[in-house]
């Protein structure tokens, strides 16, 4: 997969050199390219923002540098499929595990990191004439810019690519994974030692009975979901999943 990230803070993405993503880049599984938006400005101060039409606080990112950057980075050859453009914004659709799965199926993604009060809205409208565009939010809170949201999305998407995780099964058992974990968060996990500060590991995990372990994990996932995510538990009940899973 190829990922292009356009930002005024390329240094923000240093963590993408580390750990599993760093290894996937080194092995050629993942091609991540960073672009400094200011290289598409032409004035002495490399200006990327201006005051909002209609008044109000804050600044808005100017359309011209963004238009030129997207023309260069997301442009395409005559036979090429255009990349999907992702705009992180608190006003976007929720970025969920299902969205991560969908994005992981794309050969090319471009992320455009807004700052200040956001990017002039004509930029997305113009890009949508040439490529699929989606606005995504990582949660109901406001960040200083899209950079940290893009770090979150890139990590959630790239760990789903074949060969990025050490153990191919582990993504399938994550919270929210499609299948058995749909609409569920993971329950508790344990490793050695068997007893630590007077706390014992649940005996079923030492039983060697894989069916019993699977049932215990499913029950604990349900219990935890009811406790921490009543919204998800309600969805499970509405979809009939609670009953179906109990029968399985
Ligand atoms: N930019 C600022 N806040 C954001 C959020 N919650 N999600 C995505 N991008 C953002």
Automatic annotation (TrEMBL):
<dbReference type="InterPro" id="IPR002649">
    <property type="entry name" value="tRNA_m1G_MeTrfase_TrmD"/>
</dbReference>
<comment type="subunit">
    <text>Homodimer.</text>
</comment>
<keyword id="KW-0808">Transferase</keyword>
<dbReference type="GO" id="GO:0002939">
    <property type="term" value="P:tRNA N1-guanine methylation"/>
</dbReference>
<feature type="binding site">
    <location>
        <position position="114"/>
    </location>
    <ligand>
        <name>S-adenosyl-L-methionine</name>
    </ligand>
</feature>
<comment type="function">
    <text>Specifically methylates guanosine-37 in various tRNAs.</text>
</comment>
<dbReference type="InterPro" id="IPR023148">
    <property type="entry name" value="tRNA_m1G_MeTrfase_C_sf"/>
</dbReference>
<feature type="domain" description="tRNA methyltransferase TRMD/TRM10-type">
    <location>
        <begin position="1"/>
        <end position="234"/>
    </location>
</feature>
<keyword id="KW-0819">tRNA processing</keyword>
<dbReference type="InterPro" id="IPR029028">
    <property type="entry name" value="Alpha/beta_knot_MTases"/>
</dbReference>
<dbReference type="GO" id="GO:0052906">
    <property type="term" value="F:tRNA (guanine(37)-N1)-methyltransferase activity"/>
</dbReference>
<dbReference type="InterPro" id="IPR016009">
    <property type="entry name" value="tRNA_MeTrfase_TRMD/TRM10"/>
</dbReference>
<dbReference type="Pfam" id="PF01746">
    <property type="entry name" value="tRNA_m1G_MT"/>
</dbReference>
<feature type="binding site">
    <location>
        <begin position="138"/>
        <end position="143"/>
    </location>
    <ligand>
        <name>S-adenosyl-L-methionine</name>
    </ligand>
</feature>
<keyword id="KW-0489">Methyltransferase</keyword>
<dbReference type="GO" id="GO:0005829">
    <property type="term" value="C:cytosol"/>
</dbReference>
<dbReference type="InterPro" id="IPR029026">
    <property type="entry name" value="tRNA_m1G_MTases_N"/>
</dbReference>
<keyword id="KW-0949">S-adenosyl-L-methionine</keyword>
<protein>
    <recommendedName>
        <fullName>tRNA (guanine-N(1)-)-methyltransferase</fullName>
        <ecNumber>2.1.1.228</ecNumber>
    </recommendedName>
</protein>
<keyword id="KW-0963">Cytoplasm</keyword>
<comment type="similarity">
    <text>Belongs to the RNA methyltransferase TrmD family.</text>
</comment>
